[in-house]
Amino acid sequence: MREITFLEAQQEAINEEMGRDDTVFVLGENVQAMSTTGLWKDLSTKYGDMRVRDTAISEQAILGAAIGAAATGMRPIASLMFVDFLGICSDELINQLQMRYMFGGKIKMPLTIVAGCGAGRSIAAQHSKSLYGWLMTIQGLKIAVPSNAYDAKGLLKAAIREDNPVLYLTHKLSGGQSSQVPDEDYIIPLGQADVKREGSDVTIVSIAYGVTMALAAAEKLQANGISAEVIDLRSLAPLDKETIINSVQKTGRLVVTTEEPVTGSAAAEIAAIVAEEAFDYLDAPIKRVCAPDTPIPFSPGMEQFWIPDEDDLIKAVTEIM
Amino acid sequence: MAITKDKLVEILTIMLRIRTFEESVQKEFAAGTIPGIVHLYLGEEAIAAGACANLTKDDFIVSTHRGHGHLIAKGGKTDLMMAEVLGRKTGYCHGKGGSMHVADPDIGMLGANGIVGAGLPIATGAAASAQIRGTDQVAICFFGEGASNTSRFHESINMAAAWKLPVIYLIENNLWAVSTRSADVMGESQLSKRAIGYGIPGVDVDGNDAVAMYEAVAEAVARARKGDGPTLMVCTTYRWRGHMEGDPQFYKPKEEAEEWLKQDPLPRFRKYLTDTGTMTAEEIDAIQQGMVEEMEKALKFAKDSPFPSPEETLEDIFA
Fold first, then answer.
1. Is B2 exposed, middle or buried (0-12, 13-18, 19+ CB in 10 A)?
2. Which of residues 73-132 of A touch B (CB under 8 A)?
3. CA B183 to CA B146: how far, in whole Å?
4. What is this structure's pTM?
5. CB distance A64–B121 less than 8 Å?
6. DSSP for residue A163
7. At B74, is the secondary structure helix, strand, or coil?
8. From the candidates A75, A127, A153, A157, which is the catalytic residue?
C-alpha cells in the first residue's frame, strides 16, 4: 500500500492495462500532446503512436471509430475530455453502442469512454455537466463514477477489461485527492456499491465528488447526534439496488444526492426504486439533494448556489429526522 | 490484371441473388408479411457485387439502411436474412434487428444501419483495428450521397486520411435522398472532387457496370492493403424503388425513372458475358433459376421459423 492521488491511480490503471493487453489503445484529442501530464502521461513514449492516437477535433469520429474498433477485436479507450461533449456524438452513444443488442448478441463491444464531469471550476454550462440521469437512460451502457483513488484505479481497470461499453467519469474536483492504493493488481467490479461510512439513523446515497461532501456532512451530523450511513454507488449502471435497500431497511430514512438538475436525475431514479421496493421500511419521505433545474451558471457565487453542497445535505437530513 | 471467368461468374451470381432476394422481399412486403419498413437495393446490385468480389471473408464492410445487397455480396445467407426480415428467431439477429440492422460479424459485415452516415466512423474504426493489429484487412464503407452531406463524412475521411487507414469510402449515388433530389441540396454535386480536400484519390465509377465496379474497387483495395490509405469512390446508379416500400414516389419524374430502367445493370452484364463468350445465355438462365429456388427455400425457412419469445427481449444487452 502507498498513498497516491486520484490522477496517479488512473495513470497506473491505463498504463498497466496497456501493458497486459496489446489490443488496448487510446484515441482522442490531445492524447499525445498531453503525454507529459494528465491521464495519458508517458503512454505514447511507452506504447507508440499506433496505440496512442491523436485525433482531430472530431467527437463523432472518435467514438464511432472506437465502436468500429471494438467490434473488430480491439479494446479502445476513447477520450472525450468533458462529458458535455457526448452531446456532439450522441448518435454513437444512443444508437450505435447498442450494436450487440441489435445484432442479437453476436458481437462484443469492449470500449471505455473516459470523460470529466462536474461543476466547481467556473467553466459554465458547456463544460460542467454531469448528465448522470440522462446517461442512465442509455441501455447497454455501464457507468463508473469513482470517488477516491483506490476506487478510481480498480474501476478503470475493470472498465478496460469489460466486454461491454463503459463510460468512466471523473469529477473535476476529485483529481487531487489521495488515498491508499495497493501495489498489486486489483479490480473493482462494476455494479458494486461501497458503504463508505456506517450509520444507523439515515442513509445518504452519493457518487463521485458527492461522496467527499457526504462524508464531511456525516461527520457534522454525528456531532449533532445523527448517525448517517454513506453509500458510494461507484457505478450508476449496473445499479447496486441491494446495498441501497439493505441500508434503508436498517436506517428507515433516505437522502440521495447527485450533482445535476433534480428533474430526471439519478437521484430521482434511486428515490423511485426505494419508494417502490422498500416503502414499508421508510419512516420519513425520501429527499433528493440535487441542483436547481437550470443550466450551470458561470459566476462563482451563482455556481456555488447551483451546486448541491454539505449544508444542503445537512438541511435535508435534519428535515426528515 | 484481367478479370477471371470465375470472378465474373461470382459477380453475376451475387447480382442475381440480390435481385431475386429483393424481389421476394418486395412481394412479401406488399402481402403484409413483413413488419416495419424495408429499403430495397433493386437496380444497384452491380455496386455491392463488383465491390465485394475484391474482398475475403476477413475483410470488413459497413452498410446502410438499404443493406440487403451488401450482406449478400459479403457472403450472407438468404435464409437467415429472410428470417430476420420477417422477425423470426432463426434470423441473423434473432429478430432484434430486422431489415435495417441485419448483420453478420462472423463474415465481417458490421451491420446495416438505420442512421444515415453512422457507418462512416464505424468503418474507419474497423480499418484502424486492422492497422493496429498489423493485418492486411480492409474495410469498405458503403453509404449514399445523402450520407455524404452529414458531418461524419468529413470527420471520418479526415481521420482515415491522416492515419492512412485501409478503408474505401464508397458512395452509392442513387440521385435521391429520401424524396429530395440530392443535386438540389449540394453546392457541388460531383462528389469525387471532395477527395482533393483530404489529399486522397477521388474516383468516379459507373455504378451500373459490374466490371467497372470490380476494377475500380480492385485498385482502391490494393492501395489500402499496401498501406497507402483511403480512397473516395463515387458510384452513380439509380434508386428504382421509393426510399422505402410504400413510398408513392410522386416526386420522381416518370421519364427519368424509365430512362434509368433501361440501364438495368443485369441485362448489361448479361450482354457483356455473352458478347465476350464468357457464359452462354443458358448458363446464365440456370443460375437465375437456381436463385428462384433458393429464395423459395429461404422464404419457406423463414415462414416455418418461430417468432422469438417475448421474454427474449431481455437478453443480449450485455456480454
1. exposed
2. 73-74, 76, 91-92, 95-96, 99-109
3. 10
4. 0.97
5. yes
6. S
7. coil
8. A127
- How does B94-121 read in b/e, with b if 16+ C-beta sit within 10 Å? bbbbbbbbbbbbebbbbbbbbbbbbbbb
CB B137 within 8 A of CB B61: no
DSSP class of B200: S
Query: How many whole angstroms separate alpha carbon A92 and alpha carbon B210?
Result: 34
Which helix (H) or strand (E) segment holds residue A134: the answer is: helix A132-136
Beta-bridge partner residues of A267: none
Torsion A24-A29-A33-A39 (CA) sign:
negative
Cell of A52: 496512442
Q: Which residues does B268 contact at the CB level (< 8 Å), separation at least 6?
A: B46, B208, B209, B210
Residue A164 is nearest to which of B94, B127, B318, comparing CB atoms? Answer: B318
Cβ contact A67–B163 (<8 Å):
no
DSSP state of B252: S
Q: Torsion angle, CA of B240/B243/B249/B255, rounded to 10 degrees?
A: -30
The amino acid occupying position B255 is E
Q: Kindly tell me if the per-residue pLDDT of B163 is higher than 90.
A: yes
Q: Which of B64, B13, B14 is nearest to B173 (CA)?
A: B64
In this prediction, the answer to ipTM > 0.85 reads yes
Dig out the grid coordinates for A132 from the structure.
Answer: 448522470
* Residue reference for cell 467490479: A189
Residue A179: strand pairing partners? A4
DSSP-assigned beta bridge partners for residue A72: none
For residue B35, the Cα-to-chain-centroid distance in whole angstroms is 22
- Cβ contact A43:A35 at 8 Å: yes
- Specify whether A127 is catalytic: yes
Measured from the Cβ of residue B315, the count of other Cβ atoms closer than 10 Å reads 14
**B92 contacts chain A (CB < 8 A):** yes
Integer CA distances (angstroms), B29 to B70, B225, B291, B301, in order:
20, 40, 19, 17
pLDDT per position in chain A (321 positions), as tens?
999 999 999 999 999 999 999 999 999 999 987 766 788 888 989 999 999 999 999 999 999 999 999 999 999 999 999 999 999 999 999 999 999 999 999 999 999 999 999 999 999 999 999 999 999 999 999 999 999 999 999 999 999 999 999 999 999 999 889 999 999 999 999 999 999 999 999 999 999 999 999 999 999 999 999 999 999 999 999 999 999 999 999 999 999 999 999 999 999 999 999 999 999 999 999 999 999 999 999 999 999 999 999 999 999 999 999
In angstroms, the separation between the Cα of residue A189 and the nearest Cα of chain B is 14
| Residue A131 backbone phi and psi in degrees, to 5 | 60, 20
Q: The cell 467527437 sits on which residue? A: A59
Q: In whole numbers, what is the pLDDT of chain B averaged over residues?
A: 97
Provide the shortest C-alpha distance from residue B113 to chain A (in Å). Answer: 9
Q: How many CB atoms lie within 10 A of CB A321?
A: 13
Query: Torsion angle, CA of A205/A210/A215/A216, rounded to 10 degrees?
Result: -140
For chain A, give the number of residues. Answer: 321
Look at residue B305 in the predicted model and tell me its pLDDT.
98
Q: Work out the end-to-end distance of chain A between its first and last CA atoms, rounded to an integer number of angstroms.
A: 39
